[in-house]
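Below is a typical protein record.
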Amino acid sequence: SMRATLVHQFLEHHAQHRPEAILVLDGATRASYGAVESQANRIARGLRIEGIEPGDRVGLLAVNSLAYIESYYGILKAGAIAVSLNAAADWRTHCELLEHSQARGLICGERMGRRAEGLDQLTHLEFIIGSLPDWSGTLDILGGYRFRDRQAILQAMEDQPLHLPLADRNRAAIVYTSGSTGRPKGV
């Protein structure tokens, strides 16, 4: 049996051996290992089409949810580094951390785009993946960024893994401290 050494390989391993086993129970939402694996692969392929290369940083802004888990694994499967943002924080903080981490992309969960501001100040960000209804009133502030609808990516991409040659010394995530003692620090 395969020895999982990278975070996303644990998902792949379970999806291969027990695809029907439930990974997520969130209210009425149930998702199996196989279903999460498929969605994560689609997101990974969408990120690659946007130009994401192994080692690039991708921000993730969503409440704890199935979409968060699918996106997190999708970022890892693309070889990128997941930069998780606190959904309860304000957009000024999100923008500071996106800029500090040099994120090239941002995946947003539902209802995250409605109050978006300050994005036009970011020098590294190239694209945002989100739910189009949430961003319809905010798209004018996006300036030069590409906007991609998450549902359209999920429908268009194949659900097979990319199998990128990733090493176990590669960084998987940057997590920022709460900043309670000053400026947040990325670890």
User: Anything to note?
Assistant: The beta strands are 22-26, 29-32, 57-61, 81-85, 105-108, 127-130, 146-149, 173-175. Residues 33-49 form the longest helix (17 residues).
